[in-house]
Amino acid sequence: MKQFFSFNDVKSNYKELLNKALDYKKNPFTDKHIGENKTVGLIFFNPSLRTRLSSIKAAYNLGANVWVLNAGSDSWTLEMADGTVMDGNSQEHIKEAIQVMSAYCDVLGVRTFPNLKNKDEDYNEVILNKVVENSSVPVVSLESATLHPLQSFADLITIAEYKKTERVKVVLTWAPHVRALPQSVPNSFADWFSQIDFVDFVITHPKGYELNEKFTNGSQIIYDQDEALKDADFVYAKNWSSFTDYGKILSNDSSWTVTKEKMNLTNNGKFMHCLPVRRNLIVSDDVLDSDSSIVIPEATNRIFSAQTIFSECLKSK
Ligand code: CP
To answer: What residue numbers bound the domain in which 184 lies?
Structure first.
């Protein structure tokens, strides 16, 4: 595997990779020699708890070394624009920085959030593409401006583990938040779960929060959350800012918070969220602390999604 940015990179073999991830969960050290004398490099342009730690753990499980760089705070301030006179605060251009960092590893993970101000810049994945152009090793997205594929793969592992029937209904629901958040998690979730063959996928959100059609792939959208949640086997809550009115908060309607009453509409459904989650805003305490919540196993599966992808990248190096 030379890159992992989206479902497209695994579309042809996602079932095989899912089985591999489930095998890694049973036997985490079965491929502990794959990473021998190899290094996984992780660059973070933005904060992280789960992605950082699960990626480190995944690399260790494969016997690889790891380095982590917080770009900007741990390094020189990087210049992103081409052709600029660097007489401002930036001390090093991303071109040299990525060429150097990729010389120090065998797989390069990068986290780069959108700025939510310039839709074209974000949706053209300007920073991720600069990393790819200048890297001499496979690049893995640790969440980009538009997608979060390692999260979606972990979500797939989790749903596969918890599903009780051959086919399952999975509902992605918008929920309120006080800050404008990226669309990367819901875009990615929609892109994956609209194409997983055992899933009946539904999206629910207030009007104005339609996601980019490039990722929803014609999914059913139901604007009435109660209607959408009926008989759901899995409820995946997430806030996102508007794609059409780019980066704006259009609603803070607390009736969209996932509560016990909302979960009672489901088919004894499981509650999911990528974390971090704001309690009693996105989801009520009595849901998050109940047996229906599988957010911790979901976060745990981040190890095995990363381990599977790193292993594929290291094998092809
Ligand atoms: N879900 C997720 O990506 O968590 P972090 O932002 O903490 O890495």
So the answer is: 151-299
